[in-house]
Amino acid sequence: MNKPHKPQFVFGFSQAPPPARLSDVFLPDSGSGIDGTVCNPDLIQNIRPAKQPTAMHTNAGARALTLEAEVPAFGKVQCDPDHIANIFGLAKMVDTADHVIFDS
């Protein structure tokens, strides 16, 4: 039986000095229940109102995420221009990739 083709994409993260702006990179989050949240519109496509808001609860408080978008090679994410960083949920990465290495 043939397996469906999975595109090969690589997302890299390193222990290098932090970037000048966190909004320019993606950070993996092993505790996130959301597939991804993005604040930088230059990293996403097709920004649109979400059909249903996503409730987000963090140590900084709770809010409803009302925009969604697409990250090329990753998929649907929530969009919030008020965030200070772009987050990829590690669970989504593990579910969709052939191989994920996460060294903490």
Topology of this protein?
Layout: E1 26-29, E2 36-38, E3 45-58, E4 61-71, E5 75-79, E6 86-89, H1 90-96
Parallel strand pairs: 1-6, 2-5
Antiparallel strand pairs: 2-6, 3-4, 4-5
Question: In words, what does this structure look like?
Answer:
With 104 residues, the protein is mostly beta strands. The chain has one domain: Cathepsin D, subunit A, domain 1. It is 7% helix and 39% strand. The protein contains 1 helix and 6 strands; from the N terminus they run ββββββα.
Order of helices and strands: EEEEEEH
Going by CATH, the homologous superfamily would be Acid Proteases
What is the total number of structural domains? 1
Gap from first CA to last CA: 37 Å
Brief description of this entry?
With 104 residues, the protein is mainly beta. 7% of the residues lie in helices and 39% in strands. It has a single domain (23-96), classed as Acid Proteases (Cathepsin D, subunit A, domain 1).
